[in-house]
Amino acid sequence: MEPSLIPKPEMRTRMLAERRLYARSLTPDLRADLEAKLAQCVLPHLLGARTVAGYHPLKDEISPYPVLEALTPGQRAALPWFLDRDARMLFREAPAEEPSPWGVLQPPASSDALAPDVVLVPLVAADRAGSRIGHGKGHYDRALAHLREGGAVFTIGLAWEFQILDAPIAADPWDVPLDAIATPGEWIGCR
Questions:
Q1: If we measure between CA atoms, which residue out of 80, 104, 84 comes closest to residue 92?
Q2: Exposure check for the chain: N or C terminus, fewer CB within 10 A?
């Protein structure tokens, strides 16, 4: 079956399994090298950014931390923050120090609330036009739509190479497309 014809829930399950196997196959040194290459790919595109939002990665997600740690003086790093499981995702100044409602680390509630102008977005899969499959909860789509109501926000999906599909992903009406995608070996301008 062509990837574009596979329903999103099935594609999500399949790609999550592939991501888990891929991440487990990496030695710590190789993983660090790939994440450093990702940072080299992304950083030239952040020169004018004031606030860059990343995410605290799950075990098998490519980490945005090498990007966030290399921001220039004057640039601020933000991470997702949730008041509770039903709340909209907001962004607060890094670092992540407390468990979120899901147990993933997030900044403390006392950290500054920030409106990023660049958001580094985790993904399960994406196509070259910027349609992405996430974990299926819609947190990023709702947060990005809200941020864009207040002005321009540039979104960059971060992925391992195999997560980029050549076949298109059917977007739902609420899906917010990515502006670009970065892997350790490629920058893909989507819009």
A1: 80
A2: N
Encoded amino acid at 41, one letter = C
Q: Which positions make up the binding site for ATP?
A: 8-12, 132-140
Number of H helices, E strands in the chain: 4, 12
- Distance, C-alpha 188 to centroid of its chain: 14
Question: DSSP assignment, residue 105?
Answer: E
- Encode pLDDT of 17-59 as tens digits: 999 999 999 999 999 999 999 999 999 999 999 999 999 999 9
Burial class (CB in 10 A: 0-12, 13-18, 19+), 47: exposed
3-class SS of residue 25: helix
One-letter amino acid identity for 120?
L
Q: Which residues are annotated as a binding site for substrate?
A: 61
Is 162:127 a contact under the CB 8 Å cutoff? no
Nearest to 51, CA basis, from 69, 66, 71, 80: 71
Which domains occur in the chain, in start order? 3-189 (3.40.50.10420)
Are 176 and 159 contacting, i.e. CB atoms less than 8 angstroms apart?
Answer: no
Binding residues: 8-12, 61, 132-140
